[in-house]
Amino acid sequence: MVLLRMVVLILAGSPVYQDEQERFVCNTLQPGCANVCYDIFAPVSHLRFWLIQSVSVLLPSAIFGVYVLHKGAELAARRSRGLEDASEDHDAPGLTPGARRCLTVPDFSSGYVVHLCLRTLTEAAFGALHYLLFGFLVPKRFSCTHPPCTSVVDCYVSRPTEKSILMLFVWAMCALSFLLTVADLVCSVCWKTQGRPGTPFLSQTETGLGPHFPGVQLWVSLLS
């Protein structure tokens, strides 16, 4: 969802916002007035803000993915050196090789829940900041009275309808991403609290039991 949002912003947002400041026209010749009015109208460029938002939302998932890959590579190296079997034979004698191998797969439940919490908080924080900075629609006219403007100055935004449609699309994508993340978080917490304590998060191909909640399957599959 986040990657789709970034693709849409790059392909559709760049042509719309490439001339945003040049086409921001004010009915005044006062030097510096138009620049000050534009700075008040858009403290941060809409497109840059959306890209920063998308990267920030994607960051927790990227960190969790790197963590899973690191643990998977570490586990594969231990198995290849034969250290895994030696430690299992010493710690749990009498277990079958398949049962011993199940004990060694890392449990990513806590990390997965934390990464979902970070994504939810990031989406909520950027959503609130987006509303405070830009609202929901791009106005056709913006009135400014800030110095060096000597009177009320009316400024006109280029392509306001197209920008408003794009902004509503971004709002819809953010809301859908937030709801999906919250739903995944709720399901993950429910599965974690109802699952048996101490059971590792394993893929179905390794244990036949599957992970405690579905959301972690994609990440755990990197270990196989």
UniProtKB/TrEMBL annotation:
Q: Which InterPro entries match?
A: Connexin, Connexin_CCC, Connexin_CS, Connexin_N, Connexin_N_sf
Protein name as it appears in the record: Gap junction protein
Per its UniProt record, what Pfam families does this chain match?
Connexin
Q: Which residues form the signal peptide?
A: 1-18
Subcellular location(s) of the protein: Cell junction, Gap junction; Cell membrane
Picking any one GO molecular function of the record gives: gap junction channel activity
**Nucleus: present as a keyword of the record?**
no
- Where would one find coiled-coil regions in this protein? none
Q: SMART domains, per this entry?
A: CNX (SM00037), Connexin_CCC (SM01089)
Q: For this UniProt entry, which segments traverse the membrane?
A: 49-69, 165-186
Q: Which GO terms describe its biological process?
A: cell-cell signaling
Q: How does it assemble?
A: A connexon is composed of a hexamer of connexins.
Q: Which intervals hold domain Connexin N-terminal?
A: 15-48
Domain named Connexin cysteine-rich is located at 122-188
Q: Which family does it belong to?
A: Belongs to the connexin family.
Q: Please, which domain of life does this record's source organism belong to? A: Eukaryota
Which PANTHER family is this protein grouped with?
CONNEXIN, GAP JUNCTION DELTA-4 PROTEIN
Q: Please give the GO cellular component terms listed in this UniProt entry.
A: connexin complex
Q: Membrane topology per the record? A: Multi-pass membrane protein
